[in-house]
């Protein structure tokens, strides 16, 4: 098979990479142009939803306790999905994490789908889609490239990734899993023909995950269909003790594995039976 190629970019404060094999129905220039269009979509997404500067989404925060804000339908969809995650993760995943306690209940957000408006009823409320945005953006890129006819490609948003393989592709994607004790090395590889993979850990950004337990996993890798699901669940499981995380994976029928602080690997029975060397 011809050599794999990759194009990189930087968005949402992290590195992005789209890898691909030669496309049977697209020239190399057409493929590169499609990938440039894809990165432009990520840039547009970031500019609309950022809370770190003036943006259409940040108008929701500026008008907290004042008035509803007109938004696009994607904003409505992402906020509703985020509220669902809030309940699925026992209130851990919270897009109101910027708000003080007492004003951080996302179920209080008032959504008017008919008029496509969003209103934060308390002036102290603040929302951010940082916890779901990157995963959604990876899925958005995946769907765009697939719709445009690309096959055998991978969209990787700084470790949150999704792959697409043609049914006749000779082999799956071989995804390296970082060793949390030595990030220069891999502990093994996962063969992935379709779907997404997301890893959440406390070894690159120490203690960036809210936790009440000293027995939290060092790294959690989750496999799923959508990257947004895998990303949220990996982050949630990282907030639990290793034992709780394994139990939760089993109950939720989540494919994945956990590396605890002793180096032991805990695998979901719904998951990869082993990592390939």
Labels describing this entry:
single chain; 277 residues; alpha+beta; T-fold; three-stranded antiparallel sheet; globular; disordered C terminus
How would you describe this protein?
This protein is of the alpha+beta class. Among the domains are: 58-128, T-fold; 172-277, ApbE-like domains (T-fold). 30% of the residues lie in helices and 26% in strands. The chain contains 6 helices and 13 strands. The chain has helices at residues 28-49, 58-62, 73-88, 130-147, 227-238, 242-252, and strands at 5-11, 14-20, 69-70, 110-112, 117-119, 153-157, 160-164, 173-179, 182-192, 195-201, 219-224, 255-259, 265-267. Strands 1-2-6-7-10-11-12-13 form an 8-stranded antiparallel sheet, covered by helices on one side. A hairpin with a 4-residue loop joins strand 4 (110-112) and strand 5 (117-119). Helix 1 packs antiparallel against helix 4 (130-147) and helix 4 (130-147) packs antiparallel against helix 5 (227-238). It starts with a strand and ends in a 10-residue tail after the last strand. The model is unreliable at 204-213 and 273-277 (pLDDT under 50).
